[in-house]
Automatic annotation (TrEMBL):
<dbReference type="GO" id="GO:0061711">
    <property type="term" value="F:tRNA N(6)-L-threonylcarbamoyladenine synthase activity"/>
</dbReference>
<feature type="binding site">
    <location>
        <position position="125"/>
    </location>
    <ligand>
        <name>Fe cation</name>
    </ligand>
</feature>
<keyword id="KW-0408">Iron</keyword>
<feature type="binding site">
    <location>
        <position position="176"/>
    </location>
    <ligand>
        <name>substrate</name>
    </ligand>
</feature>
<keyword id="KW-0963">Cytoplasm</keyword>
<dbReference type="InterPro" id="IPR000905">
    <property type="entry name" value="Gcp-like_dom"/>
</dbReference>
<keyword id="KW-0012">Acyltransferase</keyword>
<feature type="binding site">
    <location>
        <begin position="143"/>
        <end position="147"/>
    </location>
    <ligand>
        <name>substrate</name>
    </ligand>
</feature>
<feature type="binding site">
    <location>
        <position position="189"/>
    </location>
    <ligand>
        <name>substrate</name>
    </ligand>
</feature>
<dbReference type="InterPro" id="IPR043129">
    <property type="entry name" value="ATPase_NBD"/>
</dbReference>
<feature type="binding site">
    <location>
        <position position="310"/>
    </location>
    <ligand>
        <name>Fe cation</name>
    </ligand>
</feature>
<feature type="binding site">
    <location>
        <position position="193"/>
    </location>
    <ligand>
        <name>substrate</name>
    </ligand>
</feature>
<comment type="similarity">
    <text>Belongs to the KAE1 / TsaD family.</text>
</comment>
<keyword id="KW-0808">Transferase</keyword>
<protein>
    <recommendedName>
        <fullName>tRNA N6-adenosine threonylcarbamoyltransferase</fullName>
        <ecNumber>2.3.1.234</ecNumber>
    </recommendedName>
</protein>
<feature type="domain" description="Gcp-like">
    <location>
        <begin position="33"/>
        <end position="316"/>
    </location>
</feature>
<keyword id="KW-0479">Metal-binding</keyword>
Length: 350
């Protein structure tokens, strides 16, 4: 649906994100200025189950979403009348969780008679980089989250081309599984990261390079290798060497991510590398990638912590792309767990 007539010079997007276990509502002006960004994490609720329980996630979103919308508007200093459009994560994510945000967004958009912008969650993670810096094109994004591990080429603003992705587990998922094997609660990524940084030595683990020209990733072999080491230690009644295993795992993951990203930066001759997603807070990855980019003279953007983990401000940043092209969503949209990032690319202007 095209609604070009809705275009104003100031655009205040009310953005909603409920794709997984964070309920978040933000008001973002012109895709850049975060006027408010509220995040309510359900981690404590899901911890008892060792992972996200979809039905529980949906229920929690329902409980909090209305109040959070009110509070986000209040904290922004604006009123609902100032809202130019309503954006919501349309996918990927847990379908029941997505639907809660979508229903809320549709209701607000309908009541205010403002356009609805169904937004891609990964486009959000990528455009989180635009909230505190300016993305320069062509750019390459290394997306590392609980559900995604991808290299995405952006030849121009709003155009996404997938050049590599994981063939099995996502990085965050692998971190969580390894953490569980090492005895840590969900989500275990931060525990493994901390231990890895403290460890004095590393257990030698394999690197999944795949075919020489491939930009794809594979993490299940590494995860199995970790589980083997853990089980062997247990069977022999030896010291678990938790820290050394964490460091070995992190070194393997980081080395492959960094090498492939740098190779792609050179092959596609991009002007910036954008790191994003929940795992972008990982200290080992940030440090190695920063050092490597400095050495190679590559400009690297990494969003601040609060815009790396799931949040609605990033959805507002990505939705602004569609505001500019006037590509709005039908009020009949449903959550799409496998929404394609490439297809979500904006129409080119001019
Ligand atoms: O992007 P995100 O907030 O949610 C998804 O869209 O998936 O990412 C969450 C993931 C979890 O798997 C969590 O364990 C991982 O990010 N994570 C980390 C770290 N902090 C969070 N993984 C490695 N190191 C960390 N410091
Ligand atoms: Zn995410």
């Amino acid at each position: 649906m095209m609604h070009q007539e809705h275009r104003e010079s100031v655009c205040n997007i009310l953005a909603i994100e409920t794709s997984c276990d964070e309920t978040s509502v933000a008001i973002v002006q012109n895709g850049k200025h975060v006027l408010s960004n509220l995040v309510s994490s359900q981690i404590e609720t899901h911890k008892a189950f060792g992972g996200v329980v979809p039905e529980v996630a949906s229920r929690k979103h329902v409980e909090t979403i209305t109040l959070m919308i009110e509070q986000a508007v209040e904290q922004s200093g604006l009123t609902l009348d100032d809202v130019s459009a309503v954006a919501v994560t349309e996918g990927p994510g847990l379908v029941g969780a997505l639907l809660v945000g979508i229903m809320a967004a549709k209701s607000v958009a309908f009541a205010l008679d403002k356009p609805l912008i169904g937004t891609h969650h990964i486009a959000g993670h990528i455009y989180a980089n635009n909230l505190t810096a300016d993305i320069v094109y062509p750019a390459l994004a290394l997306v590392v989250s609980g559900g995604h591990t991808e290299l995405v080429l952006l030849e121009r603003e709003g155009q996404f081309r997938l050049i590599g992705s994981t063939r099995d587990d996502a990085v965050g998922e692998a971190y969580d599984k390894v953490a569980r094997a090492l005895g840590f609660p969900y989500p275990g990524g931060p525990y493994v990261d901390r231990l890895a940084m403290e460890a004095e030595s590393a257990v030698e683990l394999p690197r999944a390079w795949l075919e020489p020209d491939s930009y794809d990733f594979s993490l299940s072999g590494l995860k199995s290798a970790v589980l083997n080491v853990v089980n062997q230690k247990k069977m022999r009644g030896e010291e678990p060497m938790t820290a050394e295993i964490a460091r070995g795992f992190q070194e393997s993951v980081v080395e492959v991510l960094v090498e492939k990203a740098i190779r792609a930066v050179k092959a596609y001759d991009v002007r910036q590398l954008l790191l994003c997603g929940g795992v972008a807070v990982n200290k080992g990855l940030r440090r190695t990638l920063t050092e490597r980019c400095e050495r190679e003279g590559i400009e690297l953007l990494i969003p601040p912590f609060e815009y790396c983990t799931d949040n609605a401000a990033m959805i507002g940043a990505a939705a602004y792309l569609k505001w500019k092209t006037g590509e709005f969503s039908d009020l009949r949209i449903k959550g799409d767990p496998s929404l394609s990032l490439e297809k979500w690319s904006t129409a080119s202007i001019g």
